[in-house]
Design goal:
mainly alpha; 6 helices; flat; single chain
Protein backbone atom coordinates (compact mmCIF):
# COMPACT_ATOMS: atom_id res chain seq x y z
CA UNK A 1 0.00 0.00 0.00
CA UNK A 2 1.43 3.33 -0.96
CA UNK A 3 2.04 6.24 1.35
CA UNK A 4 -0.79 8.26 -0.26
CA UNK A 5 -3.32 5.48 0.39
CA UNK A 6 -2.23 5.16 4.03
CA UNK A 7 -2.65 8.88 4.52
CA UNK A 8 -6.05 8.84 2.81
CA UNK A 9 -7.16 5.83 4.92
CA UNK A 10 -6.13 7.64 8.10
CA UNK A 11 -8.09 10.76 7.08
CA UNK A 12 -11.21 8.71 6.32
CA UNK A 13 -10.88 6.79 9.61
CA UNK A 14 -10.51 9.95 11.67
CA UNK A 15 -13.41 11.60 9.82
CA UNK A 16 -15.57 8.53 10.47
CA UNK A 17 -14.71 8.59 14.16
CA UNK A 18 -15.53 12.28 14.42
CA UNK A 19 -18.87 11.84 12.63
CA UNK A 20 -19.72 8.82 14.80
CA UNK A 21 -18.82 10.71 17.99
CA UNK A 22 -20.95 13.65 16.91
CA UNK A 23 -23.91 11.38 16.25
CA UNK A 24 -23.59 9.67 19.62
CA UNK A 25 -23.02 12.86 21.58
CA UNK A 26 -25.79 14.81 19.88
CA UNK A 27 -28.59 12.43 20.87
CA UNK A 28 -30.49 14.89 23.02
CA UNK A 29 -34.05 14.55 24.22
CA UNK A 30 -36.51 17.38 24.72
CA UNK A 31 -35.69 17.32 28.43
CA UNK A 32 -32.04 17.95 27.67
CA UNK A 33 -32.96 20.73 25.23
CA UNK A 34 -34.94 22.39 28.00
CA UNK A 35 -31.97 22.00 30.35
CA UNK A 36 -29.72 23.65 27.78
CA UNK A 37 -32.02 26.67 27.66
CA UNK A 38 -31.78 26.95 31.45
CA UNK A 39 -28.02 26.24 31.35
CA UNK A 40 -28.44 23.08 33.50
CA UNK A 41 -30.47 24.83 36.19
CA UNK A 42 -33.20 22.53 37.59
CA UNK A 43 -36.83 23.27 36.82
CA UNK A 44 -38.02 26.08 39.12
CA UNK A 45 -40.60 24.97 41.69
CA UNK A 46 -40.77 27.82 44.20
CA UNK A 47 -41.40 31.54 44.07
CA UNK A 48 -37.78 32.18 45.07
CA UNK A 49 -36.59 30.33 41.98
CA UNK A 50 -36.77 33.49 39.87
CA UNK A 51 -34.08 35.08 42.04
CA UNK A 52 -31.87 32.01 41.76
CA UNK A 53 -32.52 31.86 38.01
CA UNK A 54 -31.43 35.49 37.55
CA UNK A 55 -28.26 34.93 39.57
CA UNK A 56 -27.53 31.75 37.59
CA UNK A 57 -27.99 33.39 34.18
CA UNK A 58 -25.99 36.51 35.02
CA UNK A 59 -23.21 34.30 36.42
CA UNK A 60 -23.07 32.37 33.15
CA UNK A 61 -23.03 35.63 31.19
CA UNK A 62 -20.15 36.96 33.30
CA UNK A 63 -18.25 33.69 32.85
CA UNK A 64 -18.79 33.74 29.08
CA UNK A 65 -17.71 37.37 28.75
CA UNK A 66 -14.63 36.69 30.86
CA UNK A 67 -13.78 33.70 28.67
CA UNK A 68 -14.25 35.75 25.49
CA UNK A 69 -11.97 38.49 26.79
CA UNK A 70 -9.30 36.04 27.95
CA UNK A 71 -9.34 34.02 24.73
CA UNK A 72 -9.34 37.24 22.71
CA UNK A 73 -6.25 38.46 24.54
CA UNK A 74 -4.55 35.10 24.06
CA UNK A 75 -5.22 35.04 20.32
CA UNK A 76 -4.25 38.72 20.00
CA UNK A 77 -0.91 38.04 21.70
CA UNK A 78 -0.33 34.95 19.55
CA UNK A 79 -1.01 36.82 16.31
CA UNK A 80 0.54 40.16 17.22
CA UNK A 81 3.76 38.82 18.69
CA UNK A 82 4.27 35.83 16.41
CA UNK A 83 7.97 35.34 15.74
CA UNK A 84 8.41 35.67 12.00
CA UNK A 85 12.04 34.67 11.83
CA UNK A 86 14.54 32.85 14.01
CA UNK A 87 16.51 36.05 14.70
CA UNK A 88 13.58 38.43 15.25
CA UNK A 89 12.65 38.51 18.95
CA UNK A 90 9.71 40.60 20.23
CA UNK A 91 10.48 43.45 22.60
CA UNK A 92 10.53 42.25 26.20
CA UNK A 93 8.78 44.54 28.67
CA UNK A 94 9.80 44.24 32.29
CA UNK A 95 7.93 45.49 35.29
CA UNK A 96 4.91 46.79 33.41
CA UNK A 97 3.22 48.02 36.56
CA UNK A 98 -0.14 49.16 35.09
CA UNK A 99 -0.72 45.74 33.48
CA UNK A 100 0.28 43.92 36.65
CA UNK A 101 -2.08 46.07 38.73
CA UNK A 102 -4.90 45.47 36.26
CA UNK A 103 -4.32 41.70 36.27
CA UNK A 104 -4.46 41.76 40.08
CA UNK A 105 -7.35 44.17 40.65
CA UNK A 106 -9.70 42.98 37.85
CA UNK A 107 -10.21 39.42 39.21
CA UNK A 108 -10.61 40.75 42.76
CA UNK A 109 -13.28 43.19 41.58
CA UNK A 110 -15.05 40.41 39.68
CA UNK A 111 -15.15 38.24 42.81
CA UNK A 112 -16.42 41.15 44.94
CA UNK A 113 -19.22 41.94 42.47
CA UNK A 114 -20.20 38.28 42.21
CA UNK A 115 -20.13 37.97 46.01
CA UNK A 116 -22.41 41.02 46.35
CA UNK A 117 -25.01 39.64 43.95
CA UNK A 118 -24.82 36.22 45.61
CA UNK A 119 -25.49 37.76 49.03
CA UNK A 120 -28.33 39.83 47.56
CA UNK A 121 -29.95 36.72 46.07
CA UNK A 122 -29.41 34.79 49.30
CA UNK A 123 -31.10 37.57 51.25
CA UNK A 124 -34.13 37.36 48.97
CA UNK A 125 -34.31 33.56 49.18
CA UNK A 126 -33.54 32.85 52.85
CA UNK A 127 -36.14 34.45 55.08
CA UNK A 128 -35.79 34.29 58.86
CA UNK A 129 -39.50 33.69 59.35
CA UNK A 130 -39.40 30.59 57.14
CA UNK A 131 -36.57 28.78 58.87
CA UNK A 132 -37.33 25.32 60.17
CA UNK A 133 -35.72 24.10 63.36
CA UNK A 134 -35.43 20.37 63.95
CA UNK A 135 -35.80 19.38 67.59
CA UNK A 136 -33.76 16.19 67.38
CA UNK A 137 -30.19 15.33 68.22
CA UNK A 138 -27.87 13.61 65.81
CA UNK A 139 -28.26 10.34 67.74
CA UNK A 140 -32.04 10.55 67.47
CA UNK A 141 -31.83 11.14 63.73
CA UNK A 142 -29.28 8.35 63.33
CA UNK A 143 -31.49 5.90 65.26
CA UNK A 144 -34.65 6.95 63.41
CA UNK A 145 -36.46 4.07 61.75
CA UNK A 146 -36.63 4.02 57.98
CA UNK A 147 -39.97 4.80 56.39
CA UNK A 148 -41.55 1.78 54.74
CA UNK A 149 -44.37 2.67 52.35
CA UNK A 150 -45.61 -0.95 52.23
CA UNK A 151 -46.00 -1.17 56.01
CA UNK A 152 -47.64 2.26 56.24
CA UNK A 153 -51.04 0.78 55.32
CA UNK A 154 -51.21 -0.76 58.78
CA UNK A 155 -53.01 1.46 61.34
CA UNK A 156 -50.53 1.11 64.16
CA UNK A 157 -47.45 1.63 61.99
CA UNK A 158 -46.23 4.58 64.02
CA UNK A 159 -46.66 2.76 67.31
CA UNK A 160 -44.49 -0.10 66.04
CA UNK A 161 -41.81 2.45 65.11
CA UNK A 162 -41.43 3.39 68.72
CA UNK A 163 -41.58 6.75 70.41
CA UNK A 164 -39.55 8.59 67.80
CA UNK A 165 -42.54 10.65 66.72
CA UNK A 166 -43.67 11.73 70.17
CA UNK A 167 -42.13 13.54 73.14
CA UNK A 168 -41.13 10.34 74.92
CA UNK A 169 -38.28 9.47 72.57
CA UNK A 170 -34.97 8.81 74.28
CA UNK A 171 -31.70 8.02 72.65
CA UNK A 172 -30.16 4.60 73.24
CA UNK A 173 -27.30 6.24 75.11
Amino acid sequence: MSLVLKKRFRQVAVSGLVVGALLVLSGCSSVQEDEIKRLALPIPSTKEADTVYDLWMWSWLAAMLTGIVVWGLIFYACIRFYRRSQTDIPVQTRYNLPIEIFYTIAPIMMVIVFFYFTLDAQGKVDHDDKKVYVDRTKDQIKDAPEYNSDADVDDDYRTRLGGYYDDTYRSGM
